[in-house]
Design goal:
By secondary structure, the chain is α/β, with parallel strands linked by helices. It is built from 9 helices and 14 strands. The chain has a 6-stranded mixed beta sheet. The longest helix is centred in the N-terminal third of the chain and has 14 residues.
């Protein structure tokens, strides 16, 4: 796998911003996946996590048990091996299996006792309901979701239009509730979102034209998934690659359109650490300790989700299959990998 592109700063929170809008939203709501417990933690990275970012890798490993940490690596947001023309070239490959091996080696290099790829992707959708893979998940003390296209996580780990947990995701959710750390970078951070997860778009067009539910062939059009991602963090919207791609504008517009009053806008090579992500209001995310200043923020309650619009997201498998492919590009097709 090619090393991820990113900034040179090593701060774990610095460069992330919390965008706050006037709170005009109504009461809280449920939506997407079910609630989690209060004992675990999240480490959400804005993308382009550098190999030598010892603060972020170290924080994940420490929270997973230190020298005894066992990290499960999930890279289903990447294209599967069958769709990677460079799959046979270890220096050029960029598919789920190749990326899983890449991150597993990095976690071991940074001091984890073990790190293993969890073999779920578009070539292995059925594995998300495999008892053997669930047993593998249950042997882990922490998890890392890699980047790519977050909609592939919905395709592989959620089931049906109601986005019900697969067995593997249910096991990860239970581990989080009982103290495990769940980390992710880029799409792996986005998928932690609750309702109204961003699916693509640029700031200028978003501010000018507004947002709409679904995916769009036009990569500049601001889209979102009303049911959201896995719902690990529901206190605000999440966006990534914020400073590098100038995404503050789209974050403000999506929040305004969907009734949210807070966005965690993460920069590259930067992590937001959240203790007790499902705790009551007035809890605060913390930062990985660095020499630079950090921020904390209150945790607002998300408003009710708007109804699905005319451009619905592509269908989610209602039952596991052996193989699957990303839907073809069209009015509601997913954006290109690594674009969001």
């Amino acid at each position: 796998m090619r090393a991820p592109r990113g900034l040179t700063h090593r701060a774990a929170f610095v460069g992330s911003i919390v965008l706050t809008l006037l709170a005009t939203a109504p009461a809280a709501h449920a939506g997407g996946a079910g609630p989690i417990g209060h004992d675990g933690s999240l480490v959400l990275v804005g993308g382009a996590l550098k190999d030598d970012n010892t603060e972020v890798y170290g924080e994940i490993i420490d929270r997973a048990g230190g020298a005894g940490a066992r990290i499960g690596v999930i890279t289903a947001a990447s294209v599967p091996e069958s769709q990677d023309p460079d799959a046979a070239d270890p220096d050029r490959c960029s598919n789920s299996a190749c990326n899983g091996a890449y991150y597993s080696a990095l976690f071991k290099k940074h001091g984890a006792a073990d790190a293993q790829w969890i073999p779920v992707d578009l070539d292995h959708v059925a594995n998300a309901d495999s008892d053997a893979v669930v047993a593998q998940v249950n042997s882990m003390t922490g998890f890392f979701f890699g980047g790519g296209d977050q909609y592939r996580y919905i395709q592989t780990l959620l089931r049906g239009p109601g986005q019900k947990d697969s067995k593997v995701l249910a096991a990860i959710r239970a581990k989080l509730a009982h103290g495990a750390v769940v980390a992710g970078s880029s799409a792996g951070a986005q998928i932690a979102s609750g309702p109204d997860m961003v699916s693509g778009g640029e700031s200028y067009e978003g501010l000018r034209d507004g947002s709409a539910p679904g995916y769009f062939e036009d990569p500049t059009r601001l889209g979102y998934i009303p049911r959201g991602g896995f719902g690990f963090l529901r206190s605000a919207l999440i966006d990534t690659h914020t400073g590098v791609y100038g995404r503050e504008g789209r974050a403000y517009r999506l929040a305004a359109d969907t009734g949210h009053d807070r966005v965690y806008a993460l920069d590259e090579n930067t992590a937001l650490v959240v203790d007790h992500p499902a705790a009551p209001m007035n809890s605060s995310p913390s930062s990985v300790p660095t020499a630079s200043a950090s921020s904390t923020c209150a945790r607002p309650t998300p408003p009710p989700r708007p109804p699905d619009g005319p451009c619905a997201a592509p269908a989610i498998p209602t039952s596991p299959t052996t193989t699957a492919t990303t839907p073809a590009h069209g009015a509601c097709a997913p954006p290109a990998a690594n674009s969001v």
